[in-house]
Specification:
168 residues, mainly alpha, 9 helices, 72% helix, 0% strand
Length: 168
């Protein structure tokens, strides 16, 4: 049941709860709204708290999207498509997501995909690409391509990386 918005203590309690939630890691406005709603605060208290947090700079969906993309791309954990999906799932507006993704060049995404593929090959390759059978090499190429697609890289980037690392 939602708490009454008339009590100023509720706004203070919601603010404290939201700050603790943000203390663990950055969150989107939607994540904070859902968190406070699950805690039983009214919509008006939630709106007031979120407005304060945005005003103070504690909530900034654009900054969150840019940091998320930079971190995940630098680690080779995700391509543009997966990043887009993750940010949408976190409740970040489509326009904000698209602006943040526009900063990623094809070259940057290709380098990230290459690094991810090299790590994957180092962990899972059971066949030396230069000495194995054509069937084993073809299977390895398919598995590497599928790995990159699951990570959110485009088919074009995945194919280029596979061709670079495992020429047929």
């Amino acid at each position: 049941m939602a708490r009454q918005a008339t009590d100023p203590c509720d706004a203070r309690a919601a603010l404290v709860r939201a700050l603790r939630y943000l203390g663990r890691r950055d969150r989107s406005e939607q994540e904070v709204r859902h968190y406070l709603a699950r805690a039983g605060f009214s919509a008006s208290v939630i709106a007031e708290v979120v407005a304060r947090l945005v005003n103070w700079g504690y909530l900034n969906d654009r900054r969150l999207a840019e940091e998320w993309i930079t971190t995940r791309l630098a680690r080779g954990q995700a391509g543009k498509e997966r990043l887009r999906h993750e940010l949408y799932r976190r409740g970040i507006a489509a326009a904000t997501v698209e602006e943040a993704l526009a900063a990623i060049s094809a070259e940057m995404e290709g380098e990230a995909a290459l690094a991810a593929a090299e790590r994957w090959l180092g962990r899972t390759a059971r066949v030396d690409p230069g000495s194995g059978s054509q069937e084993a090499l073809a299977g390895l190429r398919r598995r590497l391509w599928a790995f990159l697609i699951r990570r959110g890289y485009t088919g074009e980037i995945a194919r280029a990386v596979v061709d670079h690392l495992l020429p047929s």
